[in-house]
Amino acid sequence: MNPLLQKLQPYPFERLRKLFEGVTPNPAYRPISLGIGEPKHPTPDFIKQTLNSALYDPVNDLAAYPPTAGTPKLRAAFTDWLKQRYGLELDPATQVLPVNGSREALFAFAQTVIDPNKQDGQGNGPVVVCPNPFYQIYEGAALLAGAKPYFAPSDPKRNFAVDWDSVPDAVWQRTQLLYVCSPGNPTGAVMPLDEWKKLFDLSDRHGFVIASDECYSEIYFRDEPPLGGLEAAAKLGRGFERLVAFTSLSKRSNAPGLRSGFVMGDAALLKAFLLYRTYHGSAMAPPTQAASIAAWGDEAHVVANREQYRAKFARVTPILAEALDVALPDAGFYLWAGVRGVCSGDDAAFARELLAQYNVTVLPGSYLAREANQFNPGRGRIRMALVAETAECEEAARRIVQFVQSHSQ
Ligand SMILES: Cc1ncc(COP(=O)(O)O)c(C=O)c1O
């Protein structure tokens, strides 16, 4: 067996199942889950219909192997979207690639980029820098690629911006890959241009690659849409050297089951990534390609989806703010709330007791972060995914307020 598999941590939902073992949720309440970050708004009909009719279209049916690089039409759909969303002109032949959801791509990219045998003068191997808290795939990708993850904490005092300055120079020197998540899961923080500049400067100095996870980019609460990594590079007058961004239809188009996204950026990196993906067998099914072309070509459903989240967050956030340390995030569909003063600030105990007494599921923040330098930045926080319908989220929020008030007395 590959010994690196032993290094993988249990997924947060596995830990949640264990935490809830033996808990009987109060039967007086119907269950509401704010635990899993899975979109629940319906997938637009035109996407499903395109998927369906593609099965009977000889160009898109299942009778041939699809190319790993996707069809020219699919790649043009990506670059058309990049033009209208960010004003960027990318070469569809070399600067974009389809992926089967951003998760597999975020994982596979580390396997393409990392050289596990490269050591510094002291015999230390490669490092992958990740935000903390973070999307757990980054850690697993780093470990299975033979690198060591290094966690940079997000700072609640600066709207959860990641404290990149806290990463020692000796760590940057060994860094081969940096994961950025903007908008962030779970914090919802969007990285501004000056932080991008800082990271580009570090990448220029140390030669590491930046993987920018942007799958929440279309769900935002400010007027201004979140800045993309490639957009930031263009604004700073740079090219896309050592920069690849990841996006997806899962959140934008409420289609997590479609498994469709794409990557964009540095042509040399994408050439190597295509080679890796060809061997790995990561081509996108032709009907999925057809449905993806339709989805990337339509913005009306994205605007409607965003409006739904905006209305929901506008109703739910003030209710929760009565009892918890919580505010409207920049973007994403999570609330990242402080629970100090309740259950002694123990986020796991909070989640367990809340389920037992009010039948509401939330995710303990410490499960989404790692202890680094004696500090777990998720401790004392919970993540609530506002993916259910507004009425259900409001009901959950009211129960949480009751729970907090009864436990603070
Ligand atoms: C931060 C982040 N990145 C990537 C993904 C993967 O999404 P998908 O594979 O559906 O594109 C998720 C899913 O929840 C996520 O939260």
Automatic annotation (TrEMBL):
CDD domains according to UniProt: AAT_like
Co-factor requirement: pyridoxal 5'-phosphate
Biological process annotations from GO: lysine biosynthetic process via diaminopimelate
Superkingdom of origin: Bacteria
Gene3D superfamilies reported for this sequence: Aspartate Aminotransferase, domain 1 (3.90.1150.10), Type I PLP-dependent aspartate aminotransferase-like (Major domain) (3.40.640.10)
Keyword annotations from UniProtKB, A to Z: Aminotransferase, Transferase
Molecular function, one GO term: pyridoxal phosphate binding
Family matches, as SUPFAM superfamilies: PLP-dependent transferases
Residues annotated as domain Aminotransferase class I/classII large: 32-400
Pfam families listed in its UniProt record: Aminotran_1_2
Protein name per its UniProtKB record: Succinyldiaminopimelate aminotransferase
Protein's organism: Hylemonella gracilis str. Niagara R
